[in-house]
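REVIEWER CHECKLIST
Item 1: Sequence provided? yes
Item 2: Single chain? yes
Item 3: Sequence as submitted:
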Amino acid sequence: MLFTKSANKHPLAAGTTGLANCWLLAFRSPDMHIQFTELARQYGPIYKFWLGNKLCFVISSPSLIKEIVRDHDTIFANRDCTVAGRIASYNRNDIAFCPYGSSWRTREKIFVHDMLSNSSLDATFNLRKDEVRKGIRNIYTKINTPVKIHELAFGISLNAIMSMVWGNTIEGERKEKIVAAFSSLVTRSFDLLGKPNVSDYFPVLARFDIQGVEKEMSNIMQRVDEIIEDIISERSKISSGKIIEDINKNGGRVDFLQMLMELSERQDVKTAIGKTQIKALITG
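Item 4: Structure as written out by the authors:
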């Protein structure tokens, strides 16, 4: 689904009008993709509708989608940022909501070539393996006890990701408490990011925060920021010699936080990032 604010006077694609738009807005649900599919049968592979004052287009044709994401990627690269998304992304400093341009290209380069490169993933393999083993041991202790597999799988995945992010900066009981708190905050933030918000569809009402989304997300991100600040501060106190020693000792375990902090210390303008960008890339 694409949003546009263009004042272009060219004829637009066919689409819903009047009461149908009100119905889509009022009864927006997690199953909107089904509603969009039904509307595509009526209006064709590309059609428009309004969500509040935002003109949206839905494209269901594989060939059109291919043309957009491959041939015209730079035109459609910018994403409409919701109120919750702006707060969660540290004011659009992450990959998802950062406006297309030099800043986005810098983040994309760091994300793809530094954080998710083959060498980086290989270096953090042991960190992920440890978390999977812990998860399996946890399941083993629950023999003859009903378990919710999706919750266990989500927990193991999240623990593995967080281990890749900050490695062994925190350990023991403190790590368990922080991981539990962080997991809860991430789950709540995901819920808010997917929650329909009147402020997104009618910006003139955003100042009133009618549904309390902005306030709740701000509270969540304040706590997230405190956790990350704590970890960055603790990592900064560790000497470079101790870090190298730990890396060699633990079989080449290099976490994302260390990579990003090293990049922030470089004088290379092309990859220059600050603490805000580090936080956004970690949480994004």
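Item 5: Key structural point noted by reviewer: The chain has a mean pLDDT of 83.
Item 6: Recommendation: ____
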